[in-house]
């Protein structure tokens, strides 16, 4: 609308300059002899150079003027191309009717009209100086009282206006956009005050970015009243557009306003119709659509700038690879108040494919910095079917009924300056889950995201691919493969959010009251705290990702008591190597771009304090019994015991430096053993080197302790080394033999001493009688 007003103003300015020239010529006998006076007058009025190659004037029987090669120079600082130029101007008026205040003008003809509009990199246009000069003119009170100049005429008759081969260029160096209007033609019928006349317009336009070619033809009937009133009716418009490297490939529009009326300031449209046919890029799910937009009645007032559309209805068909004439119906009411800069679209109803929606939209600050307030309600629909119709392929999911029920409602507020969007009263229902809360995004170039969302329940597995037996046979990913993070995007994020989930299920993990508080700023992303009720205890953790430098850094901490470690390992890692319940505290950091990098850069600490559990995979008691049998030269005793080492208490304190786990403390209490361990675990190669010292204590219970009573008091060294998942276990038999020999020697010493004491007593006092 602003562009059309600008073009009309420029054309009016051109006509005004021509009229000034005509008046000047009429007052001169030979216009060519006074070319300098004419150019000086234009220079004084506009500050621009004006030139004309040839001027001819005839007086009788009609006053007529012909101009050839007229030019108005461009503003200073812009290209040397003329601002406005025209190859030929022809106009004439009958003299005798002027005596009776009647103006009868022949057809005004402009051939080769060329208008050159430019904006430089600083945003200044080549017509700013003309507007400034216009604003500086002071209107005298007497001028204000003169009224419309048409009112001084008893009659106005113009044979018509004929513009041939017109051209307009819009060259915006600030946005690097260029628009060309070529082949502009405008012709009218005879123009008489108070009577309707026809205007026909045709033009071809070319836009460079993106490349769009457009052909427009239109006709309308217009009326100029003696007292300044005007009217328009019977608009017919046809527009054909084609694009290259643009989402719209072709667009055809046909508009009809058969009962269009514009008299004085009153606008009235009984009914308007816009037929369209659009073809889109083949990459789009909708490749073609055709339909009709009807509206009316439409009433408005140009003076108060208030307009109202009682009914607006769009009916169309959508076609695509998986769409065949899918119906789309939209209806609404609209009201616009340009003085208040507001617009309202109410009673909005949408029916399209699987979607049924209602809403209301309010827009403020229409022409300055628009803001939008919208209430939107989408009824329940089958999201899976809708996405399929739109050509979006969905992976196979564990629950075939997932994504079949979707509904949403929200209040949306959008602002252009500062750029932001805010969703409040948000409610999204997906299958059996309901999400509530609010979300806002500001500064789209560098997003600032805030949210507070609550989810009642979700089964994550329902949306994941089905599990197959082949998954266990799938080779692991390359540990050296680089993990590509969207670093620049992460650095640009600014996030402050909170997510609460009442019930969550993922694989074997069932959690309630999940709380996740997250923040991001300049590449530092944190999740703190992370809380959840799971495994009959409260999980407390936090994590951090730092991409402020070229190497990403990670941190994770956890502080959890009464954790059933066996259930956790089965649920998370699908392994059953350790059981027991107790506290697990960890503070770990790492960095890098691959799994191997993470292993090598792992640092931190890990503390365990477990009760009543077992280390699974080997039975220490059985290994000791086998060693005892070997020492005694006996076969290993038959057993069907479970391959695990029970403990009543297990305490471990570990420090990790550059991927190597060092044991600060490792102690365990078993029913007949006291265990102390020391050594290291090298994470990158997955190897360990451990020495476990097991002291046999007096006990006849638990894991065959009664069979080891004769080893009571001995400390048995057990060496574990090699692969972490299947280490080599070796008992130090020599150490057992040495300890057992010493123990037997000590026992023999005691027996000899006791026997000697007995003999001494008997023999020493044998000859004495008391």
UniProtKB/TrEMBL annotation:
GO terms for cellular component: plasma membrane. Keywords: Membrane, Transmembrane, Transmembrane helix. One of its GO terms (biological process) is regulation of protein targeting to membrane. Signal peptide: none annotated. Residues 7-665 form the AsmA domain. It comes from the Bacteria. InterPro entries: AsmA (IPR007844), AsmA-related (IPR052894). The keyword Disulfide bond does not apply. The chain crosses the membrane at residues 7-29. PANTHER family: DUF748 DOMAIN-CONTAINING PROTEIN, PROTEIN ASMA. This is AsmA family protein. It comes from Thiomicrorhabdus sediminis. The lineage of its organism: Bacteria, Pseudomonadati, Pseudomonadota, Gammaproteobacteria, Thiotrichales.
